[in-house]
Every structure is written in C-alpha cells, then in structure tokens.
What does this fold into?
Amino acid sequence: MRTALWPSGGNGEHAAEIAELLADAGETINLIARNADGVALGFAEAALRRDYVNGCRTSPVAFLEGIFVKPEARGTGVARALVGGVEAWARQHGCTEFASDASVENFDSHNMHRALGFTETQRVVFFKKTLG
It folds into this structure.
C-alpha cells in the first residue's frame, strides 16, 4: 500500500504545497495520510511547545497532539508515515526532541509509540480539588 501525506483538507494533487507546508506550517501542523485512491487512512496533529514538556530538556519541542489511523489501515505503515512527516517538519523548525503522551490505560497507544521509536519518560496522575 502506498501512503501519501497531504495537508488536512488537501486534495492530493500538489506535492509542492505539501513541501511548502512542511517547511512553513507555523506552530502547528495537521497531516492526513491517504491511499493511492485518495481515501483518508489517518491523521496526525502536532505543535511546537515552548513551555516545559515532561521528559524533555530542550525548547521548542515537537509534540504529537493527536494521531489516528483507521483500524483497517493499522499495521501498514500509516502511523509511521504520519510521524515521519511530523519529524521532518520538527527538524525544519529546529527541534531536537519529539514528545507525545497517552493515557495510562491506552496500551495500544503505548505499543504504537514504542514501535515508532518513542521511549517512555515518566507517568503522571493528575489530581484536582473543587474549591467552593
């Protein structure tokens, strides 16, 4: 299966637009992976974070805000292509670290992150107290 990355909303006809987006997407990037027929298989959204990012030592850090691959396309390289596109964009913006997060119970996400070269840095449980 051939996977192509397109800016979200793109129709897949202009590779130069993709290169331009990767070079100058600003502080966020949204990518859609499509098959050879143009059918969307998944998407990724990432941002440059300039505040502290758990487990990282530099700034800015590319942060994978969200990723989704259709169940029938999982295990075919779609997530790898999406993450690769984000990595290229991040490098062009001077990032040397790429971070992400997942809920503690989302084992599928943990496995995907590991398969894509991420390493776990820490686990956090958030608490709140209602003041009233």
Observations:
- The longest helix spans residues 78-92.
- Helices lie at 15-23, 78-92, 107-115.
- Strands lie at 4-7, 28-34, 40-49, 61-69, 98-100.
